[in-house]
Write a structure and sequence with these properties.
Layout: H1 6-13, E1 18-25, H2 28-38, E2 45-52, E3 66-75, H3 85-101, E4 106-108, E5 112-115, E6 118-130, E7 133-142, H4 166-182, H5 186-196, E8 203-208, E9 211-220, E10 226-230, E11 235-238, E12 244-246
Parallel strand pairs: 1-2
Antiparallel strand pairs: 2-3, 3-7, 4-5, 5-6, 6-7, 8-9, 8-12, 9-10, 10-11
Length: 247
């Protein structure tokens, strides 16, 4: 069993939610995807784990998943907000870290949250199609309470980690995600996302397939893509899922 205090999370939430927890699992995203594929789920579920042995990020990259805060949310159905679930989660995480710890969390488009120019949170959104119905799984991994001595040597100096109340942070994130889903407002989401993003004006490496090219970020598009300008003056809107960025 997990030592995460799920009763405390429930008390802090302010609304009813199916909360589950494990001490160790392969991947909380995979667990909920399997559950959704096997049976029809009627209400959202959140699954926590203290350790994931096969945690991963976008494009199959491994994600160190031990002694932090790891959760996945299963949404049996969503409307148009499904296309912006990663953005919603990024804003919710950054705002929750700021609320609970007062640290200045910022967003790196599209699915990472940073502290002091280092990654502190990764987000992975996936979907499952069953009997013509699509459900969505949102995975969030945060380096909170991760003992420095347990970090792999190759990650030291490359990722951020901090101390704090895991239950309070989890509850704040969940409140933020569900509030933005229930009252979906793309204009407000774009404004909040832009205010927390730190890439505008920076030079990034845009990777599309085998091609990698430097570009300057000029802002967010109305559909929360990223506007960039290449050295030859050409401008492009980058859409999440199609590209990878290096900063």
């Amino acid at each position: 069993m997990s030592t995460l205090d799920t009763a405390k999370i429930r008390s802090l939430l302010g609304f009813d939610l199916d909360i589950r927890a494990k001490r160790i699992t392969g991947s909380t995203n995979d667990d909920l995807k399997t559950l959704s594929a096997e049976k029809r789920i009627l209400r959202p579920i959140v699954l926590f784990a203290e350790k994931q042995t096969t945690g991963r990020g976008r494009q199959g990259r491994s994600f160190y998943s031990e002694d932090g805060l790891y959760m996945s949310l299963l949404f049996p159905t969503l409307g148009e907000e499904a296309a912006f679930l990663t953005h919603i989660a990024a804003v919710a995480v950054a705002e929750a870290i700021r609320e609970v710890t007062k640290l200045s969390a910022r967003i790196k488009w599209v699915n990472d949250v940073y502290l002091d120019d280092k990654k502190v949170c990764g987000i992975l959104t996936e979907s499952v199609l069953r009997e013509g119905r699509r459900s969505y799984v949102l995975g969030i991994g945060i380096n909170i309470g991760t003992p420095k001595g347990l970090l792999p040597s190759e990650l030291l100096g490359k990722i951020a980690y901090f101390e704090g109340d895991k239950e309070a942070l989890a509850a704040a994130i969940l409140r933020g995600v569900f509030r933005r889903i229930e009252h979906h407002d793309l204009t407000r989401l774009r404004e909040d996302y832009a205010s927390l993003s730190f890439l505008t004006g920076k030079t990034v490496r845009v990777i599309q397939g085998e091609k990698e090219e430097a570009a300057t970020v000029t802002g967010l598009s109305p559909r929360l893509g990223l506007y960039v300008r290449y050295h030859n003056g050409e401008e492009q809107e980058l859409i999440a899922g199609e590209v990878h960025l290096k900063i």
